[in-house]
């Protein structure tokens, strides 16, 4: 059975006019296809929009049913690559369209972390 990998990055958003994570996802997918020809590798650049990105990601996961999903992003404070070890249930900044999220958390009525 052929393994499937999904690699995602993001598009631009306020303060980040060029989001390196979207470019990285595409380049990494090309390299992975060459290095692992028996693995199906799919890449996607998610829009940095509070409403659209989760729906697109949900669709990608349902359509491709990956064995492994790698999600890349950017951080204003990181110096190089950082593995995120703590997820924050926070949505307080405007997205790429300038819209604020409908709620303070990505998952309402869930813990902050």
Please describe what this structure looks like.
The protein has 113 residues and is α/β, with parallel strands linked by helices. It contains two helices and three strands, in the order E-H-E-H-E. The chain has helices at 20-35, 52-64, and strands at residues 4-10, 40-46, 68-71. It is globular.
Architecture blueprint of SSEs:
Blueprint: E1 4-10, H1 20-35, E2 40-46, H2 52-64, E3 68-71
Parallel strand pairs: 1-2, 1-3
Helix content: 25-40%
Order of helices and strands: EHEHE
Which strand order do you get reading across the main beta sheet?
2-1-3
Strand proportion: 15-25%
Strand count, sense and barrel status of the largest sheet are: 3 strands, parallel
Mean pLDDT: 90
Structural class determined from secondary elements: alpha/beta
**What is the first-to-last residue Cα distance?**
36 Å
- Label the overall shape: globular
**Counting H and I runs of at least 4 residues, what is the number of helices?**
2
**Uncertain regions spanning at least 5 consecutive residues:** none
Spatial extent as radius of gyration: 15 Å
The count of DSSP E runs of length 2 or more, i.e. the number of strands, is 3
Supply the key terms.
globular; 16% strand; 113 residues; single chain; 2 helices; three-stranded parallel sheet; alpha/beta
Summarize the structure.
This protein has helices at residues 20-35, 52-64, and strands at 4-10, 40-46, 68-71. By secondary structure, the protein is of the alpha/beta class.
